[in-house]
Amino acid sequence: MNELENIRELEGKDVVDPNGEQIGRMEDVYFDAESEEPLFVTVHTGLLGQHLTFVPTAGASLGQGYLQVARYKAEVHHAPNIEKGGELSLEEEAYVFKYYGIDYQPASTEGGRRLVRH
Asked: Which domains, from first to last, does the chain contain?
């Protein structure tokens, strides 16, 4: 069973770093267009939570009402973000992967998008 199988149940809940420090509240889950595995979550960050910042799910674990990610708050603070309701361009999508040092290949799907939100 996939550790993150029920990750969507945590939308609106806290996202914390490896030290348990709160990063923000989870907004959406972005899945791999081909494998359907969760690759990133977006998290409300900033003073008013107006930005949605991408955080990888690799190494993440589900807690009692929270998601603990493998990235520290300071790293996430400078990560790529979008406005609520915004969409990533292909170039921005590639940059999200690059920022976190994750290999990126466009998907073989129409449009080449690797990340999809459901």
From this structure: 7-117 (2.30.30.240)
SS3 77: helix
Between CA 95 and CA 83, with CA 115 as vertex, the angle to 5 degrees is 65
| Residue type, position 22, single letter | Q
DSSP-derived 3-state class of residue 27: strand
pLDDT in tens, 30-41: 999 999 999 999
Neighbour-count burial of 91, counting CB atoms closer than 10 A to its CB (0-12 exposed, 13-18 middle, 19+ buried): exposed
Residues contacting residue 86 through CB under 8 Å, at least 6 positions apart:
52
Beta bridge partners of residue 31, listed in sequence order: 38, 116
**pTM given for the model:** 0.91
Say if residues 88 and 35 touch (Cβ distance below 8 Å).
no
The residues with which 83 forms a beta bridge, in sequence order, are 51
Length of the chain: 118
User: Over the stretch 53-66, which tens digit does the pLDDT of each residue have?
Assistant: 999 999 999 999 99
